[in-house]
Amino acid sequence: MPISEHNKGLQAGLFCFIFWGFAPIYFKLLKHVPAIEIIAHRIIWAALFLLLFLAIRERQQLIHSLKVTKKQLLILFISGSLVISNWLLFVWAVNDGQILATSLGYFINPLVNVFLGMLFLQERLNKVQIIALTLAASTTIYLGIFIGQPPWIALALAITFGLYGLVRKTLDVRPLIGLFWETALLMIPALVFLTMLSSNQTSSNLDMSTMWLLVFSGLITILPLIGFNYAAKRLTLTVIGFLQYIAPTISFLIAVYFFGEVFTFGHKVAFTGIWLALFILSWQPMMRLIKRKPVK
Question: pTM of the entire structure?
Answer without folding.
Answer: 0.87
